[in-house]
Protein: Cysteine synthase A
Organism: Rhizomicrobium palustre
Amino acid sequence: MPFHSNVLAAIGNTPLIRLKRASEETGCTILGKAEFLNPGQSVKDRAALFIVKDAIAKGKLQPGGVIVEGTAGNTGIGLSVVANALGFRTVIVIPETQSVEKKDALRLLSAELIEVPAVPYRDPNNYVKISGRLAEELAKSDPNGAIWANQFDNTANRQAHIETTSQEIWAQTEGRVDGFVAAVGTGGTLAGTAIGLKEKNSAIRTAAADPLGAAVYSWIKTGELKAHGGSITEGIGQNRVTANLEGAPIDDAYEISDEEMLPIVFDLMQHEGLCLGGSSGINVAGAIRMAKEMGPGHTIVTILCDYGTRYQSKLFNPEFLRAKNLPIPPWLGNKSSTITVPFQ
């Protein structure tokens, strides 16, 4: 009787889903890797598992110890899932601007949640820097010790995608993959998958899909970190070169606005039954751009990062969208039903 020994064994080996309308629009096969099916419901479960396993292997994490991380939400959720399964505790530092749904999920997973103001990385009170200092303090005071997961510069993150995501994509496409597109938060998903795929076939085209307000697009195109505009997306958008990004074989980049991303997210929901977050919309938009450049007949893979239910209070909130002058689909704005209930 086949079964997983624990929840950690269910991380990874997610299916590829053909995105019908994107594929038909471009004449290519555009496939989304369904990372929302991981136990923690996002692609970040992979990095979380590898970061914790690496800390254990190096003797840095002892039984009952604490895992500290600064996160926009999904990595913290993944770390909490892994920690609970292995007997560790989690302390998560999160910008207060992140969605209430992700904060609630962290609390449900028994993480100790610390909300801080959202400030740029250069500020000493940026959530990532606070989490690093907090880990140092807890390592001294907690009897079982503490580690800083440090997802942005801990290359165990990237290694997760070299060893798993890229290998799965290669096997699932039977080696017939022509391009890969992903947004950048830590850089681990794009860099690790690009490294792994190009080790199989150096001709595979790799690209970043970058929201406005981030600097990775400019860095890839010009070598300079420059940003402009802004985005409602969460968990992606980077303004520095992280250790996970360093040396990554990234061929190109696409800059995606919220106005381009949102109709894709809404279309995937209404016509394909896929309830996804904004980062997935950025990714699919990038995959469509790559497919149009490469021409019909190619296979492009991207990442469907997480469920849209994590952003219901923003991404699927007509009032929020209206305040940002962003498009609202008719089906979302119409809350009243015209059906007469057949009471007896």
